[in-house]
Amino acid sequence: xxxxxxxxxxxxxxxxxxxxxxxxxxxxxxxxxxxxxxxxxxxxxxxxxxxxxxxxxxxxxxxxxxxxxxxxxxxxxxxxxxxxxxxxxxxxxxxxxxxxxxxxxxxxxxxxxxxxxxxxxxxxxxxxxxxxxxxxxxxxxxxxxxxxxxxxxxxxxxxxxxxxxxxxxxxxx
Length: 173
Description:
alpha/beta, two-stranded antiparallel sheet
C-alpha cells in the first residue's frame, strides 16, 4: 500500500468529526469487541502470558481497524483499511532497523514470545509539547536513565517567542 493511497482515502472517506469518532464510534466498537473476543485485563499481570488471549486481542485489533478505520483529523474523514492490507503490511514490515549512528547506533530487532534478549528502550517526550523553561531538565532526566535512544519534545517557545510553522524561528528551534 502506498502513502498516496492513504491520502486519497482521507480525501474521499466518510466525513466524521473527531468528537463523533472519539466519543461514539470508537468506544462503541471497542466495547463490542471486548465482549465478542472475551478480552479481559488483570492488573496483577500487565503483560499477559496467555497466548490464546494474545491471539484474541490481535484478531479484535484487526477487526477494529477494518470496521472502524483510521480517523484523519485534518480531513475529518475515515481512512478505510482492508484486512488483506493489514496482513500484507505485517508480512512486509522490516524485522530489524538501526536508530542512531556510529558508536551511538542501536539495532532494533523483532522479538518473539519468551525472547531473552533485552528490548530496545527509547525514552523521552516523543514530540509532546515542552516549555522552554523545562526542556533541558526534562530531556536530561530521560538521558540519565538506562535507555537506548532519546525522543525529544516539541518546544513551544524559543527565547520567549512563540514558535510558529514556516517562520524563521522554527528553523532555530
